[in-house]
């Protein structure tokens, strides 16, 4: 039986691990976080979850539609009955307009990472384990974590980290430079949760705004704390990347008052910095990146243009690439 190490337990890594396990491979998953989920992770609070990363996902391909239907039947996801709007700001003049559509949007239940965790629930996992170095000798891979522990005997390695982290891992392992310009594919995003008693008329607000890319409200998300989540755009996030949480709370509060006209008290909940979040649409998606002779592959949602669905499809393609090379 072939042994495969999967580095990264977001949806891409979890999908690859699950598919390879289904095909009879012996898989071990490594992730620096506390559990599976990646950018689909939700933050747990005493009052409910906060979706600080992905707010929802859609399904367009037949492969992902089948998987989503399976999750629906298992109660791991449900439709998000959201109303949509567009917030625009041009020359300091803001407008909020209803922008209804027929797009089906899904959320994990009771948290966004629920379907991801389900994919790997029966697969050996090392969490809180940041892999710092890879070594390939005698057709076998050894992984070394930041604590200095080694994990040996793998026939193949699948890397599903953000491109900058994958590039760093390659360099620290004295492996060939694989990422090139792809290392700059993912841009930062500050996400800010704010609570107010005001009940919004829209749950999902798309933004054409100098600071924002998206605002959502969790009132119609099962298992969540009913509050606003504001996602600031890559340009504004990068410009103020090192600012403390208080800066972001003040920015979010001002936007809620000035652009959404909220008069009630507004309470800061949490601010989270994603260093690698939205896709840079000025760069081309590279597809899978590989060292086939050494049986190493690198991919993520960024391989095919971003979006949750593409993380799943990338995971399937990674698994197929491993199988074809075995």
Structure in words:
The protein starts with a strand and ends with a helix. It has two domains: 142 residues, FAD/NAD(P)-binding domain (3-Layer(bba) Sandwich), CATH 3.50.50.60; 136 residues, Polyamine Oxidase, Chain A, domain 2 (Alpha-Beta Complex). The strands form five sheets. Strands 7-6-15-16-17-14-18 form a seven-stranded mixed sheet. Strands 9-2-1-13-20-19 form a six-stranded mixed sheet, covered by helices on one side. The mean pLDDT is 96. It is built from seven helices and 20 strands. Helix content is 24%, strand content 33%. The chain is of the alpha/beta class and 326 residues long. Strand 3 and strand 4 form a beta hairpin.
Give a brief rundown of this model.
The chain is α/β, with parallel strands linked by helices and 326 residues long. It has 7 helices and 20 strands.
């Amino acid at each position: 039986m072939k042994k495969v190490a999967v580095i990264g337990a977001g949806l891409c890594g979890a999908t690859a691990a699950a598919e390879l396990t289904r095909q009879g491979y012996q898989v071990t998953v490594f992730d620096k976080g506390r559990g599976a989920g990646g950018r689909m992770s939700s933050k747990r609070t005493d009052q409910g979850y906060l979706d600080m990363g992905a707010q929802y996902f859609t399904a367009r391909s037949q492969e992902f539609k089948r998987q989503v239907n399976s999750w629906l039947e298992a109660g791991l996801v449900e439709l998000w009955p959201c109303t949509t709007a567009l917030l625009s700001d041009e020359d300091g003049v803001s407008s909020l307009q209803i922008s209804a559509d027929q797009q089906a949007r899904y959320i994990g239940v009771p948290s966004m990472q629920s379907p991801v965790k389900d994919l790997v629930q029966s697969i050996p996992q090392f969490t809180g384990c940041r892999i710092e170095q890879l070594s390939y000798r005698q057709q076998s891979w050894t992984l070394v974590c930041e604590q200095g522990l080694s994990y040996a005997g793998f026939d193949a390695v699948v890397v599903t980290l953000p491109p900058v982290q994958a590039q760093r891992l390659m360099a620290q392992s004295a492996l060939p430079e694989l990422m090139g310009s792809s290392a700059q594919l993912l841009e930062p995003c500050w996400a800010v949760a704010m609570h107010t008693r005001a009940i919004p008329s829209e749950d999902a607000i798309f933004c054409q705004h100098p600071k924002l890319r998206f605002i959502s409200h969790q009132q119609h998300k099962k298992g969540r704390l009913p509050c606003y989540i504001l996602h600031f755009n890559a340009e504004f996030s990068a410009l103020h990347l090192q600012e403390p949480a208080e800066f972001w709370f003040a920015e979010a509060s001002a936007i809620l008052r000035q652009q959404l006209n909220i008069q009630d008290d507004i309470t800061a909940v949490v601010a989270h910095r994603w260093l690698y979040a939205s896709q840079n649409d000025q760069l081309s998606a590279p597809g899978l990146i590989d060292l086939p002779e050494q049986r190493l592959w690198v991919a993520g949602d960024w391989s095919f243009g971003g979006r949750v669905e593409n993380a799943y499809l990338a995971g399937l393609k990674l698994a197929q690439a491993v199988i074809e090379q075995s």
